[in-house]
Amino acid sequence: xxxxxxxxxxxxxxxxxxxxxxxxxxxxxxxxxxxxxxxxxxxxxxxxxxxxxxxxxxxxxxxxxxxxxxxxxxxxxxxxxxxxxxxxxxxxxxxxxxxxxxxxxxxxxxxxxxxxxxxxxxxxxxxxxxxxxxxxxxxxxxxxxxxxxxxxxxxxxxxxxxxxxxxxxxxxxxxxxxxxxxxxx
Length: 185
What we know:
Blueprint: E1 15-21, H1 24-40, E2 44-49, H2 51-64, H3 67-70, E3 73-77, H4 79-82, H5 90-105, E4 111-116, H6 126-143, E5 146-152, H7 158-166, E6 170-172, E7 177-179
Parallel strand pairs: 1-5, 1-6, 2-3, 2-4, 4-5
Antiparallel strand pairs: 6-7
Helix pairs in contact: 6-7
C-alpha cells in the first residue's frame, strides 16, 4: 500500500479514517492488514461488517490467523448497527458502538475498530451523516482509538465524500492513505 504524507495504515495508532473503497479484493486485503497490525500492537479489534462480506471476512480470518489471535478479533454484523432501528439511526449506532467498545475494554484497553458503513436509502442525508461522523470523531479522539469507517465509493456522491472528509482526520483509498485536506478540527 503506497502512503501519502508519510502516513501508513500499519503505523497509525489512533485516529479516525474515512476509507472509500472500490475493489473488493483490495478492501479485504486492507482489512487483513489492519487486523495484522492490530495484533502486532497487542490490540483487540471490533470489526463491523456487512452481511454480504461477513463470511468472506470470517473465512480469511480463520485461514490467516491462529486461534489465539482470533480471540482478539470481534466480528459483528453491521445490520444491528445501521438497520435494526430504522435506516441509519445515529443514536442507536453510537449506543451499540459504545456498548461493544466497553465490553472489549474489559479485556484490553487498546482497541481499534473497522466498520463497513451502509444504509438502505438511495443516499443518506448529508447532515445526518455529518452529525453522526462528527460525534464518532469526538468519541474516537476521546478514547484514543484507531477507527476506520469504510464506505463503498460506488454509493457516494461528491457532496457526501466532501462531508466525510470534513469529519475524518485521514482519508484512505484502496491503495493510499493521507491526511484529510478539509478536516474541520
